[in-house]
Amino acid sequence: MFDFRYYHWKLATCSLISILLFVGCAEENAEENKDSSSSSSITSSSSITTYSIGGTVTGLSGFLVIQNNSADDTVIEQTGTDNVSFTFKTRISSGSAYSVSVKLQPNTQTCTASNASGTTSDNISNITIACTSSSYNVSGTVSGLTGSVVLQNNGADDLTVSNGSFSFTNKINKGSAYNVTVKTQPSPFTCSAASNRGLASDNMSSVSVVCAVRAYFLSGTASGLGSTTLGLQFDNETKTLSDNGSFSFSTPVAKGGGYSIYIPSQPDNRTCSVINGTRSNVSQDYTDLKAVCWEYIDNVTSGGINDNVSQNGSSPQLIEFESTLYSAWVEPSSSDNKTRIRVAKYNDNSSSWSFVDSSGINFKSFNSSATSQNASQPVLFVEDKTTPSLLMAWIEELAGTSYVTVAKFINSSWNYVAFINKNNQALTSPHGAYHSYDSSPYVTWSELDNASVSQIRVSKATGAFWDGNGITGINDNTSRHATQPRLASLSSYLYAIWTEIGDNATGQIRVKVSSASSTSWTAVDNSTAVDNSTTSGINRNSSYNAEAPELTVFNSKLYAAWQESNSNNVTQIRVAVFNGNITSPSWSFVDNGDSTKGMNKIIDKDVNENASAPRMTVFNSSLYLTWLQEHGLSKQMRLAKYNGNDSSPEWTLVDRYDEFGVSRFGLNNNILKVAATPVMAASSSKLYAAWSEPDSSGITQIRVVKNPF
């Protein structure tokens, strides 16, 4: 496992970043680029004149990433003292706008662009990006104290303070660590510092030191460590834990104060966090801390669970069936390079995977005379009858016609069930669910109709359509594109959720319901709709684009999650719960956010990095949510747990802690990389998660972890 303990975007060379993160790199010598950047270009095919966009970076030490028009990422790196010239790879047509901005700041500097926007009528070379070193104050407040106490920052810079505000004399360089602690406890008081540790990215004024005569203690247990050990740190006290062991800290926490537990380094092949590892307003002894470790159960040293680790794997799925974990994904065949659906099952006793797909599944698996075609977008679901069955649906094109293909796993082999489509055009995003009311498995997907409008289709897995008139889909407006459908069954109702273009050309999250196994789906209006209105869906703000919806049932209630842009055009994770009233529907947000912030604020307080692709599952009577969170140039696989209280919702990170407490990095095998397609599954005793992630050679591997919460 990639372990980068003190990593916060320090990389040695531009070429390394380019290889790892697939972005461009500016040339340090502009003369090498002179011919292409100093003259206009006329494309022969369209006679459109294009111009180069470039300039100079001054004062840079390290690297930064710049953009033009929110794209064309270019990495600039400087290890010396000279200025660096840059030219974006993409040229701009005459009369078009350009706007250059800094996407990722250097670790220890702040860079500002000038002459950065305008309209092209010639080559642009006067953009200046000036980088300067920054340093910040570390400050906060003291409360509850009679007398004074001596505080330290990073074990030095002694500061004697009493109740009220304080600020350390010495500033901290941008990107450097700060750690405010109590040097000596002022008897009879115990003073506890919270929000006291991190990396300086601005003036840090949130340190809170609470003092009280009464104090409390922390203890807990550890699990998932196997044969490894784990170090936990609270204040200046460190505990070394073994699997299933217990621990207790002798360092007290002042009444009313807060605490945060730290993990200075992760053990091999595991990523660990601390449940209940951070609290404020402490009012009792806490014995419920739990250090838990995600164990990588893929082929850690050689790649993921791909059949061939030199072939890209994508679109992972997970499901638990008859006490066994199954995973499906897409991977090209080495024989004909056609993508097939690969399926493997995991043996928890031997910690090994075995394939159950006869070298990959597509229609040729059921008809040996058929021509092999690409298969993609698999989804696994269980027909939960007295004798359960494992089902899988995927998209496959045969002789120019797209189908949703359904197969059933019987006696250790896959058996064809049905080909399904309505108009034979551009099928995408299949999903399946078992509806207990009529004991039937259903599938849904998006498909172009004869007018080339994407319709949400619903069918039984046998091919019997279940979406009303059979001509159009269940879209709210059948003249608007609708995609990304999902299904969920609750009581006698089958629910569908999807994203559909609304009146303002933004994606709206729509929800409809089929009652008592009816082929009719409720109209989307205030009296019968389950997404509130005829012009918008359940978006937090219908003016902003929403995508990637998810539905799940938890505590006999329907929960929805999706990604939605905010006023700064940064996507947030939104979560809402349905009131269950079909005739008078309403949704309540339980993401503990506001108009700008979604539930992902628990790790991105500034909400300046995109969050996407939410998926939910229920494990041990708790609701879990996984998603992708941008951090710098990477995307992190994140996972959080819901407290189950819709009136006072809270989400807690359960994926990774580091030397600063809750980590800005997630479950990625390599935190430099861009994770994709996060999914989860639960058994009776373990929670599993999977995603795709490039390895050091750029080959996408299917990664899988487990955690015995």
Characterization of the model:
The protein is mainly β and 709 residues long. Among the domains are: 14-133, no CATH class; 135-212; 215-296, Immunoglobulin-like (Sandwich). Helix content is 2%, strand content 51%. The protein is built from two helices and 59 strands. Strands 24, 27, 30, 32, 57, 58 and 59 form a seven-stranded mixed β-sheet that branches. A five-stranded mixed β-sheet has the order 1-6-5-9-11, with helices on one face. Strand 15 (149-153) and strand 16 form a beta hairpin. It is globular and about 80 Å long.
How many β-strands, per DSSP? 59
What is the C-alpha radius of gyration, as a whole number of Å? 28 Å
Major beta sheet summary? 7 strands, mixed
Rounded average pLDDT:
88
Question: Helicity range of the residues?
Answer: under 10%
Shape label: globular
Low-confidence stretches: 1-38, 523-529
Structural class: mainly beta
Measure the end-to-end span: 21 Å
Beta-strand share of residues = over 45%
Number of helices: 2
Describe the structure using short key phrases.
single chain, 709 residues, Immunoglobulin-like, 5-stranded mixed β-sheet, 2 helices, 59 strands, disordered N terminus
What's the layout of helices and strands?
Blueprint: H1 14-21, E1 24-25, H2 34-37, E2 41-42, E3 49-51, E4 53-58, E5 62-68, E6 71-78, E7 84-87, E8 92-93, E9 97-104, E10 109-114, E11 117-119, E12 124-133, E13 135-136, E14 138-143, E15 149-153, E16 156-161, E17 164-167, E18 172-173, E19 177-184, E20 190-194, E21 197-199, E22 204-212, E23 215-216, E24 218-223, E25 230-234, E26 237-241, E27 246-248, E28 253-254, E29 259-260, E30 270-275, E31 278-279, E32 286-296, E33 314-321, E34 324-332, E35 339-347, E36 352-355, E37 375-383, E38 389-398, E39 401-410, E40 413-420, E41 428-435, E42 440-448, E43 454-460, E44 482-490, E45 493-501, E46 507-515, E47 546-554, E48 557-565, E49 571-578, E50 587-589, E51 611-619, E52 622-631, E53 634-642, E54 651-653, E55 657-658, E56 661-662, E57 676-682, E58 687-694, E59 700-707
Parallel strand pairs: 1-6, 4-12, 14-22, 24-32
Antiparallel strand pairs: 2-3, 3-8, 4-7, 5-6, 5-9, 9-11, 10-12, 13-18, 14-17, 15-16, 15-19, 19-21, 20-22, 23-28, 24-27, 25-26, 29-31, 30-32, 32-59, 33-34, 34-35, 35-36, 37-38, 38-39, 39-40, 41-42, 42-43, 44-45, 45-46, 47-48, 48-49, 49-50, 51-52, 52-53, 53-54, 55-56, 57-58, 58-59
